[in-house]
């Protein structure tokens, strides 16, 4: 047997061995890759998981006289919190106070102030006492095309939704940072699914709610060393008094697009939000469509759960495809509406 023949035999043996090993090796790799990714994510996700207690703690809720804020106040009171609510209307605050007391037996503190007025907000927060759970919930919106918005409309929306949130947090933060031996604290901002994706007719509103994302991300980095944990809540359309009024004047296209995510009751949103706050989640979605939207738009948001981080990583491509499908559907609706409008 010459050297060439021996070489052919050796090559043939290696080829057969690789053919036998390759499927087994691939089967071995299938679980190893995701398990390795999980292990890496378990090491790098920040901040770490936390639990925020509610019972016997002070919850301060802005926009607490109606809608989601009132539902959150009911839930916090029913879970044993000392509750303070702030809103502009004194009469609505009194109605809210009575409804909470009737439902839970808890008497809440009420404060009348405009979140655009930093001094008034600061005074109310000082009078309320140290805050453990701050829920920044106030919000205004008018659904109309930007060309139909007055500069005053735009300024009012951004001042209440975004600047007002800065005012509330800035006023509450010194005492929250100075607290001693009170356990982990929470600052929550109620955004909107229109704060994750721009929606026709919501230019000013979306801009004000998108701003909360940047505020929340930067704030979490600033306060994590003080054991303060930030939560960003993204409700869909919610059946509130404000939403009922908005529906009367919202553009037809806005209604078509909003219908893709459906609507929820305030109590449902409040339960999802409070569960997310207690779990210390940075992002809280309130329905399945919102969960998919959060996966699609997570970007640089903090993630406490390595399981959810794993899901975000492996679904990035498919979720992007779903997002493109929704965009296609929305733009088709706009095109169809535009054609009927010009006839």
TrEMBL record:
Task: Give, as in the UniProt entry, the pathway in which the protein acts.
Answer: Sphingolipid metabolism; Lipid metabolism; sphingolipid metabolism
One annotated GO biological process:
3-keto-sphinganine metabolic process
Q: What keywords is this UniProt entry annotated with?
A: Endoplasmic reticulum, Lipid metabolism, Membrane, NADP, Nucleotide-binding, Oxidoreductase, Sphingolipid metabolism, Transmembrane, Transmembrane helix
Record has Zinc as a keyword:
no
CDD domains found in the cross-reference section: KDSR-like_SDR_c (cd08939)
**Subcellular location(s) of the protein:** Endoplasmic reticulum
- Membrane-spanning segments: 20-45, 306-328
In terms of InterPro entries, this protein maps to: KDSR-like, NAD(P)-bd_dom_sf, Sc_DH/Rdtase_CS, SDR_fam
Q: Which domain of life is it from?
A: Eukaryota
A GO term for molecular function: nucleotide binding
Gene3D superfamilies attached to this UniProt entry: NAD(P)-binding Rossmann-like Domain
Could you tell me which Pfam families the record lists for this protein? adh_short
EC class: oxidoreductase
The protein's Enzyme Commission number? 1.1.1.102
Report which reactions are catalysed by this protein.
sphinganine + NADP(+) = 3-oxosphinganine + NADPH + H(+)
An example Gene Ontology cellular component term from the record?
endoplasmic reticulum membrane
The text of the family note is:
Belongs to the short-chain dehydrogenases/reductases (SDR) family.
Annotated PANTHER family: 3-DEHYDROSPHINGANINE REDUCTASE TSC10A, 3-KETODIHYDROSPHINGOSINE REDUCTASE
User: What name does this protein carry?
Assistant: 3-dehydrosphinganine reductase
Q: Which species does the entry assign this protein to?
A: Arabidopsis thaliana (Mouse-ear cress)
> Source taxonomy lineage?
Eukaryota, Viridiplantae, Streptophyta, Embryophyta, Tracheophyta
């Amino acid at each position: 047997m010459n050297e060439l023949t021996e070489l052919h035999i050796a090559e043939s043996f290696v080829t057969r061995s690789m053919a036998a090993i390759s499927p087994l090796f691939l089967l071995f790799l299938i679980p190893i890759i995701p398990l390795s990714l999980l292990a890496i994510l378990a090491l790098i996700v920040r901040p770490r998981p936390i639990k925020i207690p509610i019972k016997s703690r002070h919850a301060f809720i802005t926009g607490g006289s109606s809608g989601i804020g009132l539902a959150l106040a009911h839930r916090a009171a029913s879970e044993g919190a000392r509750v303070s609510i702030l809103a502009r209307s004194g009469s609505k605050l009194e109605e809210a106070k009575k409804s909470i007391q009737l439902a839970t037996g808890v008497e809440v503190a009420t404060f009348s102030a405009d979140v655009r007025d930093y001094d008034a907000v600061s005074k109310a927060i000082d009078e309320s006492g140290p805050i453990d759970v701050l829920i920044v919930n106030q919000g205004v919106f008018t659904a109309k095309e930007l060309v139909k918005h007055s500069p005053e409309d735009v300024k009012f929306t951004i001042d209440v939704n975004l600047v007002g949130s800065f005012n509330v947090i800035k006023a509450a933060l010194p005492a929250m940072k100075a607290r001693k031996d009170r356990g982990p604290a929470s600052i929550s901002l109620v955004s909107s699914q229109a704060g994750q994706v721009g929606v026709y007719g919501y230019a000013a509103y979306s801009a004000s709610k998108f701003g909360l994302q940047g505020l929340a991300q930067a704030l979490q980095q600033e306060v994590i060393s003080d054991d303060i944990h930030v939560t960003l809540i993204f409700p869909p359309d919610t059946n509130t008094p404000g939403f009922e009024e908005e529906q009367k004047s919202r553009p037809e296209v806005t209604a078509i697009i909003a219908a893709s995510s459906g609507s929820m009751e305030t109590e449902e949103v409040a339960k999802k939000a409070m569960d997310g706050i207690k779990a210390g989640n940075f992002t809280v979605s309130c329905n399945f469509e919102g969960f998919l939207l959060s996966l699609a738009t997570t970007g640089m948001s903090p993630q406490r759960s390595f399981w959810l981080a794993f899901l975000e990583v492996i679904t990035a491509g498919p979720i992007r495809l779903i997002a493109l499908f929704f965009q296609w559907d929305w733009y088709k609706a706009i095109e169809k509406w535009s054609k009927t409008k010009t006839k």
